[in-house]
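Budget justification aside, the reviewers requested a transparent look at the raw inputs and outputs of the sequence design task funded under Objective 1. We therefore reproduce one unedited record. The lines immediately below are the structure tokens for a 259-residue chain.
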């Protein structure tokens, strides 16, 4: 249980929005504090490229956990909205900073000392922030089954076959009780957790998050090349696209004893 979680609250292992925001601000403050110049009490100055990179990654650190959480909880509207906001904001930042790349440095607007303090404070707040609450249970049986499928297939990474068998078993139990699924079995996340604890062999390494992150950065690389031509920044986005996907593949191979 998190240090800031209220008694009786049950939460998932996924990050809440406040925790995502604090983690992103912690990265931004720490990165700019390190890759900038100036005294601890005067406004820091940094290369425009560093500031652009920090801004794009900060936005990604906010959006990625939200997108994955909403997708795993079967809330597609929030998931798509968060992804689009990140993509639009990232392209805007990249295009806005491009004319400034020829400059030696730009004023950050905050002293390095304050950035260091914000880094420490952000790290503490990230640690103290609670994880995300489980989704509310839907009333209709069709929505209940859809959410159970999402939690088993996306949160616990069950295979399609194992997920469908679990949903069929839950449906059969509710049919025997002659009650709606919610009344017969409880919240979908409780049922999913029970299935996962009783069938741990079906749980697999979740590689979707880094792969999706890689695809998002690949999209930024294409957009950057389309608007500004092939440049250092489009190459950087390519690197950011390849690294997480490759790391996911390596970890998956090790998890299955193939690495």
């Amino acid at each position: 249980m998190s240090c800031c979680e209220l008694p009786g609250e049950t939460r998932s292992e996924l990050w809440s929005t406040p925790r995502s925001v604090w983690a992103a601000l912690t990265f931004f403050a720490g990165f700019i504090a390190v890759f900038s110049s100036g005294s601890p009490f005067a406004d820091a100055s940094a290369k425009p490229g560093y500031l652009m990179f920090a801004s794009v990654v900060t936005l990604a650190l906010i959006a990625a956990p939200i997108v994955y959480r909403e997708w795993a909880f079967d809330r597609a509207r929030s998931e798509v909205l968060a992804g689009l906001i990140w993509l639009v904001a990232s392209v805007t930042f990249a295009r806005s900073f491009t004319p400034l790349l020829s400059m030696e440095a730009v004023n950050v607007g905050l002293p390095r000392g304050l950035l260091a303090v914000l880094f420490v404070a952000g790290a503490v707040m990230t640690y103290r922030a609670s994880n995300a609450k489980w989704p509310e249970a839907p009333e209709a049986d069709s929505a209940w089954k859809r959410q159970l499928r999402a939690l088993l297939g996306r949160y616990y990474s069950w295979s399609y076959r194992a997920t469908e068998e679990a949903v069929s078993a839950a449906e059969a139990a509710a049919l025997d009780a002659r009650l709606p699924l919610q009344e017969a079995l409880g919240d979908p996340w409780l049922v999913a957790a029970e299935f996962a604890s009783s069938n741990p062999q079906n749980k697999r390494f979740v590689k979707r998050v880094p792969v999706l992150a890689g695809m998002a950065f690949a999209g930024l690389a294409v957009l950057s090349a389309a608007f500004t031509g092939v440049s250092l920044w489009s190459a950087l986005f390519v690197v950011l696209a390849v690294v997480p996907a490759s790391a996911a593949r390596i970890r998956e191979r090790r998890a299955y004893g193939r690495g």
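The two ends are 34 Å apart (CA to CA). The CA atoms of residues 223 and 229 lie 9 Å apart. Computational costs for records of this kind are itemized in the attached budget.
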